[in-house]
């Protein structure tokens, strides 16, 4: 197994542990989950801080991959944004460790470097979505009287609250049906009605 693949496998194992508890992310536990000895893990991550950096990179890669796939599967910017939200919902459902990680004091606490790293990931994700919204405004599909950033926050608002309930219910609540209904309201709110009427 090459180094990058092994690093990703280790980060995936840490993310699985995060679904149970952030405190479960230790070098020993992650090594055990990967079925390797801790000394082998140290070849890829020197300490727990670096494992959290690997988690940050893993989450970033999954978010960017979702944006790439959403753009490939749809043609109109509005459809891409809706697809992105559904993919985001599926990601949070498949990896419950992500919301646990994002709301953990291990991320939002005193470690400013760790917090800034995860904030940079979310900022990049929002900018990517905002550029899609801007394209929708340029083509006339999305209302031009609202800021692209506001479109993105409305989009995230369709996903985050139901996903938070999923997190609070410890997986008993499936957020995806509610998110699909929310997206209908999102589309109604941001779609350029003049285009709809003309077509």
From TrEMBL:
PANTHER family: ACREF/ENVCD OPERON REPRESSOR-RELATED, ACREF_ENVCD OPERON REPRESSOR-RELATED. Residues 26-45 bind DNA. Residues 3-63 form the HTH tetR-type domain. Transmembrane segments: none annotated. The lineage of its organism: Bacteria, Pseudomonadati, Thermodesulfobacteriota, Desulfovibrionia, Desulfovibrionales. Keywords: DNA-binding. One of its GO terms (molecular function) is DNA binding. This is Transcriptional regulator, TetR family. It comes from the Bacteria. It comes from Maridesulfovibrio ferrireducens. InterPro entries: Homeodomain-like_sf, HTH-type_Tx_Regulator, HTH_TetR, Tet_transcr_reg_TetR-rel_C_sf.
């Amino acid at each position: 197994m090459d180094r990058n693949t092994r690093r990703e496998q280790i980060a995936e194992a840490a993310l699985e542990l995060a679904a149970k508890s952030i405190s479960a992310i230790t070098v020993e536990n992650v090594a055990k989950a990967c079925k390797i000895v801790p000394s082998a893990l140290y070849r890829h991550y020197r300490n727990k801080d670096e494992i959290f950096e690997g988690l940050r990179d893993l989450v970033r890669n999954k978010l960017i991959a979702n944006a790439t796939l959403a753009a490939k599967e749809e043609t109109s910017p509005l459809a891409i944004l809706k697809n992105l939200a559904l993919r985001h919902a599926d990601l949070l459902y498949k990896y419950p460790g992500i919301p646990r990680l994002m709301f953990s004091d291990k991320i939002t606490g005193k470690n400013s470097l760790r917090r800034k790293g995860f904030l940079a990931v979310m900022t990049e994700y929002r900018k990517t979505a905002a550029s899609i919204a801007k394209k929708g405004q340029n083509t006339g599909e999305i209302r031009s009287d609202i800021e692209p950033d506001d479109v993105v926050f409305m989009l995230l608002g369709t996903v985050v609250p139901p996903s938070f309930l999923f997190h609070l219910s410890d997986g008993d609540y499936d957020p995806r049906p509610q998110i699909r209904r929310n997206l209908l309201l999102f589309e109604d709110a941001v779609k350029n009605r003049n285009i709809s009427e003309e077509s």
